[in-house]
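Thread title: Can someone regenerate the structure for this chain?

I was given the following input by a collaborator and told the matching structure tokens would be attached. They weren't. Posting the sequence so someone can regenerate them.
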Amino acid sequence: MMASTLCQLAALALCGALLARDRLAAAPPLAILGGTIHTMNGPPLCDGVVLLADGKVQAVGPAGVVAIPVGATVLKAAVVTPGLIDAHCVIGLSGHLNQKQDQDQLDTSTAMQPELRAIDAYNPQERLIEWVRGFGVTTLH
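Best answer:
Regenerated them for you:
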């Protein structure tokens, strides 16, 4: 019974991953035109393009060199940087109100709690996630 349930859950997770991949692949290419592009590899590019397709960076370079496909979504920005990684973060576990009932990372009922998992308390709808995304944070760890 337990093995059957686990197999069904695994199949469901696989279907979800495949559907998400197909949705990413179906999105039109995205071209970001930047006045200054910081690539973290060499000096900044002035008047450049970052081209994304299928959820991945396809090209980065001067506007005259990178061809923008027909039908691509074009965004303009004064400055373009790689996404920032917040390597010590409790966003999604702690709420934006900073009140005791909204702080799932602070459970101190016992010294050792191997049964607790962050995924059980994580709130993907937390308003703080969108707020830090506005500052360029693309990865929370």
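The two ends are 35 Å apart (CA to CA).
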